[in-house]
Amino acid sequence: MATPSAASPTPESPGNPEGVASRRIAWRVLQAVAAGAYADAALERELAGSNLAPLDRALATELAYGAIRQRRLLDGWIDAQARVPALRQPPPLRWLLHVGLYQLLFSDRVPAAAAVSTTVELAKRGGLARLAPVVNGILRGVLRTRSRAQAPLPSGQEGQPSLPAWLGLALPADPAASLALRRSLPEWLAADLLRWLPPERAEAFAEAANGSPPLDLRVNAGRITPEALRADFAAVGVAAEPVAEAPLALTLPERCGDLRGLPGFQEGQWCVQDRHAQAVVPLLDPQPGERILDACAAPGGKTTQIAACLEERGEVWAVDRSEPRLRRLVENAKRMGEATIHTLAADAAELASLRPEWRDHFDRILLDAPCSGLGTLARHADARWRVDLANIDELVDVQSRLLEGLAPLLLPGGHLVYATCTVHPRENGERVRHFLDQRPDWRLLEERQWWPGRDGGDGFYAALMQRPLLREGAVELKPAAVG
User: Fold this and answer.
1) 159 is a domain residue
2) How large is the average pLDDT for residues 48-52?
3) Which of 166, 262, 273, 464 is in Cβ range 3.0-4.6 Å of 301 for a Cys bridge?
4) What is the mean pLDDT of the chain?
5) Share above pLDDT 70 across residues of the chain, in percent, rounded to a whole number
């Protein structure tokens, strides 16, 4: 689900004059996520059971995702203003305060008075009536603190979110702790960012992780040109801009509701795919007539991109452990008109034993490995709070097992691309070097790391490796090209 920007309009529907309904949904989503639900699924459930007008749905979405994303900073304000630290507050009160604080600190469409009054009213209606004065006191205390910390502004403009949301907080002296608080990141991630990047680039990463990610499309060049699709979008009032580094990419500067209603979707003229994700398949460089394996393939954005390169001459096998996700892949492939794709529900690490005939079989293999997703934090509001160093240890083991299991399936002289949507070196370059250390005759041909930042695009990593040809005197049994 796309994440709206903090500038989304916020008028309330006529049937909801107090503006409580959209805030109540956001509050419920925060509580559900704290109990273990995924943010997008929790929000979808709540919205499905409501009759909110579109602008109110947009407000509920903004408040839910924004407050989840800004959890660390919002807790910092509670710690500064309340007698009881955030982590010791009753959970329903803590998450309700987050809904109110997010509006005060980040939303430039909600007046401060409305943010306070609706949050207090929601406390009264939501079983926290005796704590309503506490809610009121904390929110107004934040407003007073920020007002004292800034130069006087014109009447009615106090507390506007153009000011840093941490203005008025005492920031830690430690650079990592300060970055974690200001940009609402886990402290381990903030510390790692400052080890991997110069301070200004770490700041840019953190800022991008809290922003509204671009919505990029990949044009199906077999059915339409980017220029023609832009014209079709413009005819229905939807702006689409080219992306310099991705010739088949268009980006939509503004949200436009249900994407399935846009021109060309049903005809398979485009699909949603991040600009940096689109750069992975050109690195693999599939050619007509080849056999290609796409491991961990669902939901299939890169699979259909590979198939398009084959020009209906060749064969693509898409393997994924999840049958429901593979069904989505099949639907996407059918819509995009790609008939060379075959699917298999299986653990890609076990393919050598499940399909022994696939040994030395594929010209090229793409392993889009399971990863921590640290390059896509802007798209997944709760992801930063779900990942820790123990998770990364587990993922590194899975990634190594997949690489080891897939290597025998590649033809001698064939190419393998290992890709992730994370920026953690242990999952990326270190994983590839560990793999190559065990295979000194393999070659690393190219390696790329894309970082999220102010220029748009998610964080991705890709490494292109080549298996050696057979030794002199050995017999190479290469299958005939398909098609």
Assistant:
1) no
2) 90
3) 273
4) 91
5) 91
